[in-house]
Amino acid sequence: MEKLEKLEKFPEKACEECGHVYVEEECPRCAEREAEAADEAEKIWIMPNTDPVELTNDQGVRFVNIYFVQRCFGGREEGGWYFDCGEILRVIVVPNESAAQEIKSGLDALEFSNKGRRPLSSVHSDGEFRVTIDLAPGVDWPREKPRYE
Question: Which of 10, 30, 131, 134 is most buried, most CB within 10 Å of its CB?
Fold first, then answer.
């Protein structure tokens, strides 16, 4: 009975974004996804698969961002071209620049060392790690595939 009332009030329709068929005023899947995205934007992840934390004081805070960088195929123009693309692996929040430098040095030397890896310019490269210190949490880049011009 409840479904019939909903159908009379709001006829069935398909969401233009996700294709989900729904009866409510707006697509519940898209509304939920937007709410989750808003919540995530306010939180910073320290490590993958751990609980997010909220920063209360951002004075001097640095982000040690760890990327895996590869060459991605751009297109066939002029014999083919490639561009660098970075995937964020981990973000570590630290209270100041000196702590960030210490962590970066340790990560570069141990866990994310490129020793034995071929450089990105090599056709046999399988990628490399890059550890950066930034004022914001890292994100995958580029956001859009570059265009050949």
Answer: 131
Nearest to residue 92, comparing CAs of 124, 143, 133?
133
Name the residue among 34, 142, 146 with its Cα closest to residue 88: 142
The CA distance from 67 to 57, in Å, is 25
Cα dihedral 6, 24, 13, 3 sign: negative
State the CB neighbour count (10 A cutoff) for residue 83.
14
pLDDT (tens place) for every residue of the chain, 149 residues total: 454 454 455 566 667 776 666 566 677 777 777 777 665 544 454 544 444 455 544 568 889 999 999 999 999 998 899 999 999 999 998 888 888 999 999 999 998 999 999 999 999 999 999 999 999 899 999 999 998 88
Domain spans, the chain? 2-41, 44-149
Give the Cα separation of 52 and 73 in Å (integer).
34
55 neighbors 44 (Cβ within 8 angstroms): yes
